[in-house]
């Protein structure tokens, strides 16, 4: 364990110390427990990073094993850094009835990721969530804070393309995406040729 | 509201916010200032108005005119035409999807006409982030009334009201409170169960977002009646708005002295904390929930001991649902006798349901217990859209069942009867999710959906639930793929009853309900799947996509959308789908503007 810890140390220095101190302070002040600490870690860092959880476990004296036992029980916790755009598909009953399965399959086909996975370029993550409370516009997809309702696979494709375009100027050398793009534009051309 | 003043009520709850409700509110506030109307027009952000289908929306009082499906650009139009010009903006008012008539006033809309509001009477009327607004509608008057009574009298009053818990099981609330009151071991705790894990329901969240003070007042009354000194509201982290509004409300209640060491100088001491759940359906079960509050894995344990004997930290604890707590102050205010007169002989008061699925008017509704399913689906819900045929309703989420058309006139109640027994007495509603299913829903797929859900959510502690649901899922997978047999149906049935009888907690015990009820009422659909037919055209393995030559105009849109190049054809001529290449993704289906693509089942 100690050796591991040494390896992790350089990472720790990257992480904002004041944020960790705040989590510890909160824990001390409001009789917190392992669950509340893990929630603060995820809230602060977006996911449960091993370094931070281990550091906290040592500082506060809650065994690391217990912390991870709890973390794996609850769906809320994520163990990997998530993509720039988090696609959350509602898998609630109303959305299922209105075809959310097709949306999930579409994303898996299109982006090559299944729920709880992230594209290699860290652009998109896919997650399934139950009822967002907007069943009236089912099926619903959230992308970060934006909500899209009454979706069909065709509409979702247009939306995804919008996000892809938005991120292209920022990162020019994303090979994987590029090749996909090329393929696509070829296809589009093909149809045009028929014209 | 002062004379000559106008009040504009904008819904800023989750459903409407997701479509821009908050932005409409902000734009409205900005524009009212720009037009110098801020002396005569008051803008009020509120919680859910129930009819989320029509959001974002705003209501102008005193005239009661409702504007629906708003966009930011509509705000100026409403100000100029309605507020300044005095003319209703007809094109932004509500059009009834059934009668196709325009209905300008909220109270004339069919969706609202058949409802009664007791538990939700403040929802959509007050600003949930302002305790003053709650006080203005009589908030905390019930508490004052209660503090003049003896604790035993309060419990008696709740018993008289015949209120039953609204969390699904329908246990009489007064009786439950009396168990806690009898305990001599201290301290005692109260819990508000706001986990709401049913994946198709949002009543509890809506109440916490729209009227959080009622929940708090209810808990304080409960504390007085039972001798509890601290309380917890358990709400999922995935419902951030509900969590933050309830937290804010608690803070304000503390500031006003409703939560303190000596509440309103009565000597009553009570405080509430919020605990965030982390997304596990089983945590809605009371013993699992308590384990989660203590920071452990949310595993249920056998009862007894019941929470009233040994709950949080081994101390006496009482747990009630959000809706139950929110109803308490209303019962005190209207009188227990009056409350008990609403509803039926066995179930008093109202039911709060979340109506969605294939229905014209989706949203949150409150109806007297004993209302028939027909009234809910047709009079309030407006029936199925696009002229589709009604097939069934699914009630009670993953623990519930499907009720077919022949029971449309059955009453909805909350007594503890089984989902299997829809009798003349009625059908149990469970937690309150109500999903309308039409002919385009496959009930085998539906059953599989719920079993997959519970299989995922099984905490793994007991074998019948963990292994049994997996086996059921496996069989259902086979059936939806068209590889099932008649023996599978029998095995499914026997598994269902084993799991029901042998599981430790309610999750396992109720998990086969969706299968049991669909097997009972829709066995023909299962049998069709065995023959390779999915009558609703849902199950992927049993359908094929085709293009209708009559409707196709040869635009080629579908071919462009297909990622496997399964569609071939020449522009202006009929396109064709190569069913061998087709991966049935449905992209073309939703791309065609002419609805020329159709699905077929049975036969290759
Ligand atoms: C698997 C399972 C999930 C449950 N989920 C909830 C829930 O989300 N909300 C709730 O109030 N009760 C839920 N319950 C019921 C609770 O155990 C408990 O009966 C209820 O909170 C009591 O409140 P009431 O008497 O006001 O109905 C669930 C029960 C089971 C077995
Ligand atoms: S999109 Fe529709 S109309 Fe156009 S070619 Fe395809 S099937 Fe025909
Ligand atoms: S369903 Fe999908 S794969 Fe099949 S033809 Fe249509 S677009 Fe192509
Ligand atoms: S089921 Fe998807 S938002 Fe409710
Ligand atoms: S969220 Fe706005 S009406 Fe329900």
Give a description of the structure.
The complex is a heterodimer of chains A (195) and B (604). With 195 residues, chain A is of the alpha+beta class. Chain A has 2 domains: 14-73; 85-166, Glutaredoxin. Chain A has 9 helices and 5 strands; from the N terminus they run H-H-H-H-H-E-H-H-E-E-E-E-H-H. In chain A, strands 2-3-1-4-5 form a 5-stranded mixed sheet, with helices on one face. In chain A, strand 4 (141-143) and strand 5 (146-148) form a beta hairpin. Chain A is elongated and about 50 Å long. By secondary structure, chain B is an alpha/beta fold. Chain B has 5 domains: 6-106, Glutaredoxin (3-Layer(aba) Sandwich), CATH 3.40.30; 131-338, Rossmann fold (3-Layer(aba) Sandwich), CATH 3.40.50; 350-438, Ubiquitin-like (UB roll) (Roll); 443-530, NADH-ubiquinone oxidoreductase 51kDa subunit, iron-sulphur binding domain (de novo design (two linked rop proteins)); 543-601, Alpha-Beta Plaits. Chain B is built from 23 helices and 21 strands. The model of chain B is unreliable at 417-421 (pLDDT under 50). The interface between A and B is large, with 51 and 63 residues. The structure holds flavin mononucleotide (FMN), iron/sulfur cluster (2 copies) and FE2/S2 (inorganic) cluster (2 copies). Flavin mononucleotide (FMN) binds at residues 165-169, 171, 193, 195-197, 281-282, 284-286, 319-321, 324, 505-507 of chain B.
């Amino acid at each position: 364990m100690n050796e591991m810890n040494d390896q992790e140390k350089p990472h720790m220095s990257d992480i904002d110390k004041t944020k960790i101190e705040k989590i510890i302070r909160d824990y001390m002040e409001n009789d917190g427990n392992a669950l509340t600490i893990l929630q603060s870690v995820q809230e602060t860092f977006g996911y449960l990073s091993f370094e931070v959880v281990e550091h906290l476990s040592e500082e506060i004296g809650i065994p690391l094993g217990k912390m991870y036992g709890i973390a794996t029980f609850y769906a809320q916790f994520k163990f990997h850094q998530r993509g720039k755009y988090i696609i959350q598909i509602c898998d609630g009953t109303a959305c299922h009835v209105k075809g959310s399965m097709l949306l999930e399959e579409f994303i898996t086909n299109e982006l090559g990721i299944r729920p709880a996975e992230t594209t290699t370029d860290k652009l998109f993550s896919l997650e399934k969530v139950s009822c967002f409370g907007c069943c009236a516009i089912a099926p619903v997809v959230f992308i970060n804070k934006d909500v899209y309702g009454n979706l069909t696979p065709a509409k979702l494709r247009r939306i995804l393309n919008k996000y892809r375009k938005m991120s292209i100027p920022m990162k020019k050398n994303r090979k994987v995406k590029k090749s996909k793009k090329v393929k696509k534009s070829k296809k589009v051309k093909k149809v045009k040729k028929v014209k | 509201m002062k004379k000559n003043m106008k009040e504009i009520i904008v819904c800023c709850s989750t459903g409407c916010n997701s479509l821009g409700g908050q932005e409409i509110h902000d734009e409205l506030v900005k524009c009212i200032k720009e037009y110098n109307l801020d002396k005569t027009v008051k803008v009020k952000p509120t919680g859910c108005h129930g009819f989320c289908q029509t959001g974002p929306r705003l209501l102008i009082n005193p005239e009661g005119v409702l504007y629906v499906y708003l966009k930011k650009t509509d705000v100026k139009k409403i100000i100029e035409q309605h507020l300044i010009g005095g003319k209703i903006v007809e094109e932004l008012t509500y059009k009834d999807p059934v009668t196709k008539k325009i209905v300008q006033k909220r109270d004339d809309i069919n969706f609202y006409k058949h409802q009664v509001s007791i538990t939700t009477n403040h929802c959509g009327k007050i600003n949930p982030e302002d305790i003053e607004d709650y006080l203005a509608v009589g908030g905390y008057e019930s508490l004052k009334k209660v503090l003049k009574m003896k604790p035993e009298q309060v419990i008696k009053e709740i018993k008289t009201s015949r209120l039953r818990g609204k969390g699904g099981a329908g246990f009489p609330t007064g009786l439950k409170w009396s168990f806690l009151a009898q305990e001599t071991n201290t301290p005692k705790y109260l819990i508000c169960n706001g986990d709401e894990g049913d994946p198709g329901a949002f009543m509890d969240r809506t109440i916490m977002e729209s009227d959080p003070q009622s929940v708090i007042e209810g808990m304080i009354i409960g504390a007085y009646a039972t001798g509890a000194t601290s309380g917890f509201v358990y709400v999922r982290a995935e419902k951030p708005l509900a969590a933050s509004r309830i937290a804010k409300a608690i803070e304000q209640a503390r500031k006003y002295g409703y939560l303190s060491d000596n509440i309103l100088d009565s000597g009553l001491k009570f405080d509430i904390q919020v605990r965030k759940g982390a997304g596990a359906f089983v945590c809605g079960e009371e013993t699992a929930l308590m384990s989660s509050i203590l920071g452990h894995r949310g595993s249920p344990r056998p009862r007894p001991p019941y929470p009233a004997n040994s709950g949080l930290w081994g101390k006496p604890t009482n747990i009630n649902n959000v809706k139950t707590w929110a109803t308490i102050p209303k019962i005190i205010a209207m009188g227990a006798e009056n409350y008990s007169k609403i509803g039926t002989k066995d179930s008093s008061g109202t039911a709060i349901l979340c109506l969605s699925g294939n229905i014209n008017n989706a949203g949150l509704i409150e109806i007297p217990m004993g209302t028939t399913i027909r009234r809910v689906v047709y009079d309030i819900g407006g029936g199925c859209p696009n002229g589709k045929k009604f097939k069934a309703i699914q009630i009670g989420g993953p623990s519930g069942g499907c009720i077919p058309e022949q029971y449309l006139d059955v009453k909805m109640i909350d007594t503890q009867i089984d989902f299997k027994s829809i009798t003349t007495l009625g059908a149990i509603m469970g937690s309150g999710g109500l999903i309308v299913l039409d002919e385009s829903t496959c009930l085998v797929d539906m059953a599989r959906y719920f079993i997959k859900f519970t299989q995922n959510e099984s905490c793994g502690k007991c074998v019948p639930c963990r292994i049994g649901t997996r086996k059921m899922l496996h069989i259902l997978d086979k059936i939806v793929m068209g590889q099932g047999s008649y023996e599978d149906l029998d095995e499914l049935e026997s598994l269902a009853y084993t799991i029901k009888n042998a599981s430790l907690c309610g999750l396992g015990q109720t998990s086969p309900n969706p299968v049991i009820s669909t097997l009972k009422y829709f066995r023909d659909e299962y049998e069709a799947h065995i023959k390779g037919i999915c009558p609703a055209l849902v199950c992927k393995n049993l359908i094929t996509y085709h293009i209708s030559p009559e409707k196709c105009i040869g635009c080629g849109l579908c071919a462009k959308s297909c990622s496997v190049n399964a569609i071939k054809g020449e522009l202006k001529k009929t396109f064709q789908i190569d069913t061998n290449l087709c991966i049935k993704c449905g992209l073309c289906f939703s791309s065609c503007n002419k609805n020329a693509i159709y699905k077929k089942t049975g036969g290759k």
